[in-house]
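Explain this one:

_____
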Amino acid sequence: MKADRAKGSVGSNEETNPSAQTVISTEREERRVEDRVAINAQVVYETIRREGEEELARPNAALAWSALSAGLSMGISFIAEALLRAHLPNRPWAPLVYCFGYSVGFLVIVLGRQQLFTENTLTVILPLMQRRNGQTLMRVLQLWTVVLAANLLGTCLFAACVGKIALFDPAVVRAFSEIGTAHTGLPFGIAFVRAIFAGWLIALMVWLLPGADSARVSIIIILTYLIGLGEFNHIVAGSTTVFFMVWTHSASWGEYFLRFFVPTLLGNIVGGVTLVSALGHAQVVGGRETPGNDSKRQKEKVRLHLSGKSASSKH
């Protein structure tokens, strides 16, 4: 009877505890398996949330200098796309090639850990969704204001340099104007919807990066390439091109603010906050598990992801 009960208990343990049937026999093999298991949504969420907490705690001066660097770096996308466009024949397939230039500035900004406004439609929103108090809301709005203003100042300075100084040959300058024209003259509603897509893709990129490891560059290129190819309005990248049009007297300041800035800013915020931040928060809160061994492993994965980034903290 005892033997039968023992066998029964072993069988029930194997059914309720899958690890009892594992073929892994050493701790080293177990670690290698865990290294190859994709991190779950809880780990991604907590990694980004902790990064958001760090950003909210940073001094405004540090945020501003980093965001100014990002605004200047975004000009690299403008130059790269224009150079490719100027040297390619005018064929229907040409956008499939020259839109890769759009991704270059984003690579510099994301890998260089510079402050980009649209990334913060996810990163700092997760702490706000957890605490839901006025103090955190005011800090988020303050960070958004500082980062956006510094981003736009950087793009404006870059566009003034390119527009006022004869640095490139006429073919490249024509390409600058062609890129800028695509961001001006759109109806408010079309610009707004296009901006929603851009905000969604950038925030989605941020959500994917914690689990990307060696695929970080590929994710940045693919998602930002889609923004460029689809001509979706991005408040920072697009401001570089429209500011160029303003400095070369091809567009007015009123057109920039009313036809581009307002619909694009609103659309980017809606796309990032609602389609990624809110849905990501909902899926994690809705699927939260009882603390145990799994939660300990998740915390360890979060710690490893954050420690891997500590050496490359934002400037």
Remarks:
- The chain has one domain: 37-312.
